[in-house]
# Entry
Amino acid sequence: MSRLIVVSNRTPGKGPAAGGLAVALRKTLAERDGFWFGWSGRLVDRPTNQAEFEEIEGIRVGKVDLTRDDHHAYYAGFSNSILWPAFHLRLDLATIEGHWYEGYRRVNQLFAQALLPHIEEGDVIWVHDYHLIPFATELRHLGVRNRIGFYLHIPFPTLDALYAIPHNTELMRDLSRYDLIGLQANRDVSAFAEFADHQAPSTLSGSPLKSVDFSRTEVAAFPIGSDPEAFAKLAVSPAATKMVRRMQRALGDQALILGVDRLDYSKGLPQRVEAYEKLLANNANLRRQVHLLQVAPPSRDTIKEYQETSDTLDAMVGRVMGHFAEPDWQPMTYVKRAYGQPSLAGLYRLARVGLVTPLRDGMNLVAHEYIGSQDPRDPGVLVLSRFAGAAEIFEDALLVNPFDTDETAEALRLALSMPLDERRRRWKRLMESAQAHSVDRWAESYLARLAPNGHNGKPATVRDVLYLDSVA
Ligand code: F6P
# Structure
């Protein structure tokens, strides 16, 4: 089997992995020959294009330092103040500063130069996420002819949002330099194909643009998953049980509604709190009977829009507390801190309702983890946003429009009163789907397609694969 080189902005560190990406890829790489490559997490004064390698929990990891200025332009700037909001259809929250593009390209170039001496013939290179769209172009300029795949963990944007991104044609041309582009959902493949079909016909000067040629690039949906069996075990582990006992003491007989999200405006947290407020306002009988626990570790907090989301949420939580709390009852707990997987698994299992209502999301692995952690004899109910990629595979969740807080409040009421039979029936099908879309199958199916002969000698074009069922 060829060696695998995984490239992503963040590399795994010691201790619990923060994002879904880190959790998913650590497992894949632990089972293959190869290494992980990306940013070291360190900011330095002088630029370097040398990688340092170390062994972290059984995985070889190559890391490159970045200067403060490069990191700002590449990460906080172009990646998270332009690409992230545009891909999540939040142009109102984007800061379009075109000069960040130079830093974004420079970092991609530097990563490619640092990786070059470590690439061997036959290696398969798997690049992850929007920080690294130009990475294949940079490697190709350096003469790399290996198979290179790209996986986008976030949703693909609509045409209007894409055209609002500075240098969008160059970025799409960068994508055409990959052999395989993996997207989360069929929705994303359709959006991608729309670009391929309707490329902007002219430049500002009126001279026709050469359209981007995707004839050598395969594009398909590979919905990412988690390891549901591992969560099932973790949820009854001693560490999980410790957290469950702590929480049970605080809850008494109250039913737990649980949200777990990075503190990000795409997660719909203010709308979620508003829906909960409506639930309590419209159903006086539920007061003292339910409790919302929202876990929201701060994220990207140097960016103004993230600070504002945090402030908005503080104010809303304060409002709900002021309105409904009593000396001996609190309607909700809001925790701005990250917890390890065992504690989360315990909380998922305890929660009668898993509330996963992003405004737009690539997949959402919390939905997968919640399902995996349930007690088959007495499972909870997943309330899930229609706009998460997960909605394409979890039809047995209660699907809601997260912008409609009345609808979410009503789904919460239904979830809290759902009879055991129906909970079991729904959960069984959800679990089957989580198993069918496990992280192992995701990586296997993607890597089988990326392998030198995975495309059977003839790469499918965007149109060939459009509307095919997801492959995982
Ligand atoms: O889901 C998108 C993503 O960028 C993941 O790749 C990553 O694990 C997570 O968000 C955390 O983001 P950041 O690395 O900016 O903290």
